Amino acid sequence: MVKKGSVCRCCVLFGAFCRSIVEIANSETNGNGQNIEKNDGKIEFWVLLKGFGALKGKTGKGGEVLSGPKRPAGEAKQDIKAEEQANKAAKAALHGRFCMLKRRVRTSATFRRPKTLRLARKPLYMRKSIPHTPRLDEYKVLVCPLNTESSMKKIEENNTLVFRVHLRANKYQIQLALKKLYNVDVQKNRMSLWMEINTLICPNGTKKAYVKLSSDMDALDVANKIGFV
């Protein structure tokens, strides 16, 4: 218990501390130990640090008060890097994650989703002892050429060959079969760059294909090579 009218010991120590800080703030010592009066009378942060050093009894060679031990240069660089990273993180957190997103420039209204990668199977053992024969190879796609009057007229006038093909063969398979068997190229459309092959299913249930050859090939020569003319 502190008696009424008496002064606490902590208050006395605090008063002495404040007086020492004011004295250091009002005067400085140069290298020769002489006091230098300050004109502005302001207590700056570094002066306060000097006051703390003076109370702890830490002084330099010239009598100047030191604030504490010097840190190595490596730690200072690490602190600078950490500060830069912290500033970047604070800036990113301020703007949010949407500032990092970039809008894709599209030049057309149509687009396709990326194709999913499907790897080939690597079974531990074969499920079949003998693989199945090709169900639709080039020999099954092209059944036979047609040499009717209308088809011969197409050969002479339109540079077009007529074939009877498999019922389930598509135009791409027909083009590959012609390339493998007879080494002929199909004419491509200038607008769509798609091969000029027209197919139809006859009333008797067979499928017919009209194949227009490229300009550097003669349909009549190809027909003679095949042997149906």
TrEMBL record:
Q: Which InterPro entries match?
A: Nucleotide-bd_a/b_plait_sf, Ribosomal_uL23-like, Ribosomal_uL23/eL15/eS24_sf, Ribosomal_uL23_CS, Ribosomal_uL23_N
Name the keywords, alphabetized: Ribonucleoprotein, Ribosomal protein, RNA-binding, rRNA-binding
Under the GO molecular function aspect, what terms does this record hold? rRNA binding; structural constituent of ribosome
GO BP field: translation
**Pfam families under this entry?**
Ribosomal_L23, Ribosomal_L23eN
Which N-terminal stretch is annotated as signal sequence? none
GO (cellular component) term, any one: ribonucleoprotein complex
The residues covered by the Large ribosomal subunit protein uL23 N-terminal domain are: 82-132
Keyword Ribosomal protein in record: yes
Gene3D superfamilies recorded? 3.30.70.330
Please indicate if the UniProt record lists Zinc as a keyword.
Answer: no
Q: Which family does it belong to?
A: Belongs to the universal ribosomal protein uL23 family.
* Quaternary assembly: Component of the large ribosomal subunit (LSU). Mature yeast ribosomes consist of a small (40S) and a large (60S) subunit. The 40S small subunit contains 1 molecule of ribosomal RNA (18S rRNA) and at least 33 different proteins. The large 60S subunit contains 3 rRNA molecules (25S, 5.8S and 5S rRNA) and at least 46 different proteins. uL23 is associated with the polypeptide exit tunnel.
* Biological role: This protein binds to a specific region on the 26S rRNA. Component of the ribosome, a large ribonucleoprotein complex responsible for the synthesis of proteins in the cell. The small ribosomal subunit (SSU) binds messenger RNAs (mRNAs) and translates the encoded message by selecting cognate aminoacyl-transfer RNA (tRNA) molecules. The large subunit (LSU) contains the ribosomal catalytic site termed the peptidyl transferase center (PTC), which catalyzes the formation of peptide bonds, thereby polymerizing the amino acids delivered by tRNAs into a polypeptide chain.
User: What is the name of this protein?
Assistant: Large ribosomal subunit protein uL23 N-terminal domain-containing protein
Q: Which organism is it from?
A: Pneumocystis jirovecii (Human pneumocystis pneumonia agent)
Q: What is the lineage of its organism?
A: Eukaryota, Fungi, Dikarya, Ascomycota, Taphrinomycotina
